[in-house]
Amino acid sequence: MSTYEDRLKALREELAKRKLDGFVVPLTDEHMSEYVGAYAQRLAWLTGFQGSAGSAVVLPAEAAIFVDGRYTLQVREQVDGAHWSYQSVPQTSIAEWLKEHAPQGGRIGYDPWLHTRGWVKAARAALAEKGAELVAVDTNPVDAVWPDRPDPSKARLIVHADTVAGKSSAAKRQDVADWLAARKADAVVVSALDSLAWLLNVRGEDVERTPVALAYAIVQSDGTADLFVAPEKLGDDVAKHLGNAVRRHPRNAFAGFLSELGGKTVAVDPERAVAAIFETLDTAGAKVVEARDPTVLAKAVKNEAEVSGHRSAQLRDGAALVRFLHWLSVEAPKGGLTELAASDKLEEFRRGTGLLRDLSFDTISGAGPNGAVVHYRVTEQTNRTIELNSLFLVDSGGQYEDGTTDVTRTVAVGMPTAEMKDRFTRVLRGHVALARAVFPVGTRGGQLDVLARQFLWEAGVDYAHGTGHGVGSYLSVHEGPQRIATFGGGDEPLQAGMFLSNEPGYYKSGEYGIRIENLVLVEAREIAGAEREMLGFETLTFAPIDRELIDVGVLSPAERAWIDGYHAAVRERIGPQLEGEAKAWLDSVTRPL
Question: The dihedral of CA 23, 25, 29, 31: what is its sign?
Fold first, then answer.
């Protein structure tokens, strides 16, 4: 089946065989993951869409793909508008769209291992208005027509040492047991892959760019746990590390185990656990308590070892990025340098540290108009040359055993236009405003979001993504529950010890993109005479900001002082790791404005 049109036709034929009038295809796996293994890339296989978030609905005579603002341009480049209509989230939803488009009295299929119970409830209610019904499938029809679908990864689990984790798995499981006792519950289901990795101090290689392993866990009220993972994925080192308190079962025994929990009180996270888990427990006669996975907040608030490890990772990663930016300053103006060559070179500098485990996501290497595609991923087909008098945006990161990094820099190659400098300076001033913010304990990320947008708003422009996301500790580069955003999250109170990104941007479709991203640590702030406990941000990322793009004249004294202070810190921390021309270049680009 060579074309996407053929694949869509094959799926429609399969649905007809199953007496279904439609099917919903989300981009996720049985763990509600954002980034998924190759075996779960059903949306990409069916549509050609390569983004990291989206869903599709296939009906007999029409089909729609749903993406958020990060992918507005990308979806139109990758998915054929002759066969798919483009839908914007959150302006519309699958449930709303189905209410309008599903056939009267139709049967719309869904895979209960790929949706939350909340989604099922909303979609079912919307379809009921049409006299249509939502039908759970036993096996996924996309899998039935995907002939060369990869198997789930067989990579072995990796022990994540307690010295790097900062707390033993036994101690973490005891905290969960105490949490269960407070709720008078017998067990909790841990189905999110990063939660499981954090809880058991293990990592894996089952998802590209995210060091997690395909498994489920159920933690019991005595602090013991049942782990469900393919047996061939467990080496002797991991078995010894887990010990007798973590009982091992095959991964495919998970549903059967759930069905034996009748009469027990079981906590399940409605946001992170799929509908099938709830349905299996309900059918078994368990008392299900909806509660947020108890590892989520514990994982987000980093301990001393995690913070210290992250600082080390940032210094190493910062030196690799600075070597790349120096190289780029020499090579790009010569002409002929491509996006792929640039991203390959950046990875080479990171690998040169000798400690890189993986990238933390596919590098966004966007020249000129490709920089305006927020989550752009360069391919052989889209690979542009970095032209003179244009902007180049590079968003990248590394996975190291001691930390996960994520950093964006936008650089001028040649002479930027007045508009480019204006927009860049507005983005920078927003970045600085957020970096300098001081706020009371209890403040939510959504309350700070406007700080980063204010100077863009003054010019009547904005950006269609959040300003900040949480980051894991040698885990997912996008980690909750904290976010700095006015939509799609941002309601979690920020706490000392949380990592976040600070990444405002501006995107001019068809011309250029700008983003400045550092990672920050939420920290306590001592203020003389303060009547409330206050927090602020410590910047953790060290790499120069392109002074050629800064309109110094519009900066306030406080903004100038922050930028000069930041550049002095970059010079002080990264300089000693460099020598020769790279060091001289860094000294030059970080001198006071």
Answer: negative
SS3 state of residue 331: helix
CA distances 272 to 181, 193, 200, 552, 557, Å, are 21, 10, 18, 46, 46
What distance in Å separates the CA atoms of residue 113 and residue 140, rounded to the nearest whole number?
9
Cα angle for residues 70, 387, 547 (degrees, 5° grid): 75
Q: How many other C-beta atoms lie within 10 A of the C-beta of residue 100?
A: 10
pLDDT at position 570 over 70: yes
Residue partners of 158: CB distance under 8 A and separation at least 6: 202, 203, 204, 205, 211, 238
The model's pTM is 0.96
pLDDT tens string 31-71? 999 999 999 999 999 999 999 899 999 999 999 999 998 89
Q: What is the pLDDT of residues 522-543, one digit of tens each?
A: 999 999 999 999 999 999 999 9
Q: Which residue has the tokens 């040649």?
A: 414
Residues 6+ away with beta carbon under 8 Å from 490: 444, 445, 446, 449, 466, 483, 484
Between vectors from CA 106 to CA 100 and to CA 108, what angle results, nearest 5°?
85
Which residue type sits at 389?
Answer: N
Q: How far apart are CA 262 and CA 284, in angstroms?
A: 5
The structure tokens listed for 413 are: 């190659």
Closest CA to 318 of 501, 517, 564, 543: 543
Q: How far apart are the first and last CA of the chain?
A: 58
pLDDT value at residue 487: 79
